[in-house]
Amino acid sequence: MLVGALTFTLLLPLLLLGLMLGMEHVERPLRESSIQDQLTTFLDTARPEEVEAYISDGFGPALERYWKRRRLARLLPGRSR
pTM of this prediction? Predict the structure, then answer.
């Protein structure tokens, strides 16, 4: 009984590590295509200052600025986008 519990205790972390590596292998292409689609949409519809933020700060901060502007435009009366 003790040997079985000890074996389970030692093998469980290895099993979880293998599962996580397998999941990462499957998810990587999904993340990359999603980022590529977001970047394409962003570059097609971004304002010049948002593109400058992308160049100087990186994609994350620039995309956040872009989504803030989009949310604000929906909240303002008389503005449709």
Answer: 0.38
Distance CA 51, CA 70 (A): 15
Element (H, E) at 52: helix 48-57
- Kindly state the tokens that stand for 46: 């971004």
| Distance (Å, whole) CA 67 – CA 5 | 51
**Structure tokens of 15?**
């099993």
pLDDT tens digits, 19-52: 999 998 888 777 767 777 877 888 888 888 888 8
Q: Both tokens of residue 63?
A: 């995309």
Token readout for 44 is: 């097609």
